Amino acid sequence: MMQAASRHAGPASLPIGSDADLAWVRQQVRQAAAELGFGLVQQTKLVTAASELARNTLVHGGGGHVRLTPLDAGSSHGLRLDFVDDGPGIRDLDQALTDGYTSGGGLGLGLSGAKRLVQEFEVDSRPGEGTTVTVTAWATVVPPARTVP
User: How many helices (H) and strands (E) does the chain have?
Assistant: First the structure.
């Protein structure tokens, strides 16, 4: 099995071809985020975004993979996730990013919801050529509690 990305490892690529892969992606994203110092709420947001995007990769893109890349910017640590498929692409990206829009009978919060959960979000999609959705989240350091004299 593949290992999760961590500060000490390079990118890891995980297949997305079945519902079991979706669970594995969620688990590996949570583990990588924890290793990079993400707090529990940050981990949950990133895992939620990853879950939505992995499901889109499977359902709408016919499967593909996600690449987890740990980021180190000095004192800041982050995680970039690239969801890649060779599916039909997104015909109308603006519409697909609109809250409530769905092409699959869901709640219509997949792309727009994922976008709200991360600091950086980018979609590269061409009809007939597939889609790559890249999201990046950064671990924020919570300042230590002040002591009151």
Answer: 4, 5
Residue 79 burial (C-beta neighbours within 10 Å; 0-12, 13-18, 19+): buried
For residues 92 and 85, is the Cβ–Cβ distance under 8 A? no
pTM as predicted: 0.84
In the block, which residue shows the tokens 């709200």?
A: 116
CA distance 14 to 149: 51
The DSSP element (H or E) to which 69 belongs, if any, is: strand 64-73
Q: Is the pLDDT of residue 47 over 50?
A: yes
Among 146, 9, 11, CA closest to 67: 11
- Strands 120-126 vs 76-85: parallel, antiparallel or unpaired: unpaired
